[in-house]
Amino acid sequence: MLPNPTLDQLQVFLTVAETGSFSAASRVLNRAQSVVSYTIANLEAQLEVPLFERSGARQPKLTEAGRAMLEDARRILGDLQVMRARVKSLKEGLEAEVSVAISVMVPSQAVVDVLREFRDMFPSVSLNLYVGELGMVMDLVLSGKATIGIGGAVLRQDDSVVTERIGHSFMLPVAARNHPLAALERPLMLGDVREEVQLVVTDASGLTKGRDFNVLSYKTWRVSDIATKHQLIKAGLGWGGLPASLIRDDLVSGALVHLDLEAYEQGEYGIYSMRRLANPPGPAAAWMIDAFRTRLSACPNQADFHARIAELHEPGMPLAAE
Question: Which range is the signal sequence, renumbered to this chain (predicted)?
């Protein structure tokens, strides 16, 4: 017959092992020493192995089997504590799980800071994280795969979705420092970029099908994600717009050059929280929205961003095609 130890037996075993004696365990557990000894004896009978060496020692010493079982007991009782915390949270209305879709336009440091605090604030809440491009964030919210979305422009008006502006971001047209556009020492005209390859992200959600944003070149390479676009631009394979927060270090080091291109719309755009009207956020999701609002409201505007880059810029490296 397979052993079937109880949680109480495991707790008594763990207490004896940690306190070093049956008498000390009886005081911690507020039980008679005889009850503690009887519980351990029953556990050993269940497992059919001795857990403590009792002969010839004033204090019980773990056997080899006992040392192996100790780690299992700690893990099982630890899982029980997690389950108890989760049940307590559910009774208090806290979600068991939060699914969030976040746009690549959201500064990565803000994402890391918020998620670190979320982990500490809600240790019992599981997290599903999606990172999307363009319409993917709204698509995930509409489909119900994401409880909340944190993303850029609202690409489609939908009465079933509640949106709220919580911050801002902006894109910058850039090229590698060895790209022909970066070598032009003047403001760029539309004609300068027409024949150069422009890298463009394709929206997998389909919400922007048939629509292009700031696509100025006749030659385009379309990629599936912003990370690939970033790497190809750094490699000098084309030019394109990238989120300012993503390329801050590249601009400081001179690996990328900001292009002075008036035809490229560089105004700030909003970052929004999104959720379905029929699915109001619970305490954890609501906290996350507020945390992103706090972080994003402190993000610099374009003027401050450029001033900071100029201050940190490495000497001798091109800063912009001007």
Answer: none
Tell me what pLDDT residue 85 has.
Answer: 64
Kindly state the tokens that stand for 103.
């746009």
pTM of the predicted model, to two decimals? 0.61
Strands (E), 160-266: 161-169, 171-176, 198-201, 220-223, 240-243, 256-259
The chain-wide mean pLDDT, for the chain, equals: 84
Token pair of 315, please?
């000497």
Length of the chain: 322
Residue 152 · residue 132 · CB < 8 Å:
no
The helices-and-strands tally (H runs, E runs) of the chain is 11, 13
Bridge partners for 168 per DSSP: 270
- What are the tens digits of pLDDT across the range 235-263? 999 999 998 888 888 998 889 999 989 88
Contact 163, 148 (CB under 8 A): no
Q: What φ, ψ does residue 55 adopt, rounded to 5°?
A: -80, 135
The 10 Å Cβ neighbour count of residue 283 is 16
